[in-house]
Specification:
The chain is of the alpha/beta class and 328 residues long. A hairpin with a 2-residue loop joins strand 4 and strand 5. The structure holds adenosine-5'-triphosphate (ATP). InterPro entries: AAA+_ATPase, ABC_transporter-like_ATP-bd, ABC_transporter-like_CS, ABC_transporter_ATP-binding, DrrA, P-loop_NTPase.
């Protein structure tokens, strides 16, 4: 559930602002003028298909790559004037993990503690605390190469937190993880935000953005094509519908006659009726079918979701459409 703010409270300061960020590789424009404003303490999702420019945005904002144009501030530090200030305030975990598989989880953590110049005793304390918090205490003394994908991601985030960053960039944190590990990762993100950390995540998964983000920007071909809350984005697309499927052509014909506002597909023997899927709307449709003496073989309700937004804005879905089936 995204974090919420009291309506009368002043807007929080920005953790990240970017204006007109541009980047090209050769003659290929990868970012074509990206504007962002991410309030401190919120979760922001940059949602886009492969090659949209998500990782490039993260690399620029985390000072790993220089932009060709535009400017940005992260944690109040300008990327160009104060890259060290930016680096001191952020943590980044990417698709290419910082975890060294040849050493143990604990050794990876202690290495990070050394990089942050923590005194030895303090480093051990922080490492042990974070390993426990991320459910890695039992495997702390085993080489990280034997960890599962989810464990490696958790270790990666734990390593990032050694520096106590106020802003964390998570580049596709759940790509390749099984559903359980994805949910664990979502829990971790929520916990971070509860502690006041700002989370900037990139994702190809609409449900992930929907689940976690206060605001979502949809990026496609290096441009932000829409930005808003999940609800605002869903309002951009036409409403849902109720779909009836028949096996008997006669029943299909009778139902079509009874439901004059239905869109009819004679080949598939389906009817598609605009509607919000509310109980009242469903009852009205079923009553009309009953009155006509026909019964549908399948009834599905489809409410607009981020898939639809994605489809409308980028010209293609990233995942198969999910339908909520209510009667079969
Ligand atoms: N160092 C580079 N040299 C040349 N092209 C690059 C370089 N880095 C990225 N690109 C190109 O820039 C485009 C955007 O890449 P980017 O990694 O930012 O996309 P992405 O949205 O993160 O996609 P993915 O989900 O696949 O990681 C891609 O077409 C990619 O091939």
């Amino acid at each position: 559930m995204p974090t919420s703010r009291r309506p009368d409270s002043p807007p929080p300061p920005a953790a990240v602002t970017a204006v007109g960020l541009r980047k090209s590789y050769g003659d290929r424009t990868v970012l074509d003028g990206i504007d962002l404003r991410i309030p401190a303490g919120s979760v922001f999702a940059l949602l886009g298909p492969n090659g949209a420019g998500k990782t490039t945005t993260v690399k620029i904002l985390s000072t790993l790559v220089t932009a060709d144009g535009g400017h940005a501030q992260v944690a109040g530090h300008d990327l160009v004037d104060s890259p060290d200030g930016v680096r001191a305030a952020i943590g980044v975990t990417g698709q290419f993990s910082a975890v060294d598989g040849l050493i143990t989880g604990e050794e990876n953590m202690l290495l990070m503690a050394d990089l942050h110049h923590l005194p030895r005793r303090e480093g051990r304390r922080v490492a042990a605390e974070l390993l426990a918090r991320f459910d890695l205490a039992d495997v702390a003394k085993k080489p990280a190469s034997g960890y599962s994908g989810g464990m490696k991601r958790r270790l990666d985030i734990a390593m990032t937190l050694v520096g106590n960053p106020r802003i964390i960039f998570l580049d596709e944190p759940t790509t390749g993880l099984d559903p359980r590990s994805r949910h664990t990762m979502w829990g971790i993100v929520r916990e971070l935000v509860a502690q006041g950390v700002t989370v900037f995540l990139t994702t190809q998964y609409l449900d992930e953005a929907d689940e976690l983000a206060d605001r979502i920007a949809v990026i496609d071909g290096g441009r932000i094509v829409a930005e808003g809350t999940a609800e605002e984005l869903k309002r951009l697309v036409p409403g849902g519908h109720i779909r009836l499927r028949f096996t008997d052509p006669g029943a299909h014909r009778s139902a079509a006659a009874a439901l004059a506002d239905a869109e009819r597909d004679d080949a598939a023997l389906t009817l598609r009726i605009p509607g919000d899927g509310s109980q009242r709307r469903l009852r009205a449709i079923l009553d009309r079918l009953d009155a006509a003496g026909v019964e549908a073989d399948e009834l599905t309700v489809r409410t607009p979701d981020l898939d639809d937004v994605f489809f409308a804005l980028t010209g293609g879905p990233t995942e198969p459409h999910q339908t909520q089936e209510v009667v079969r």
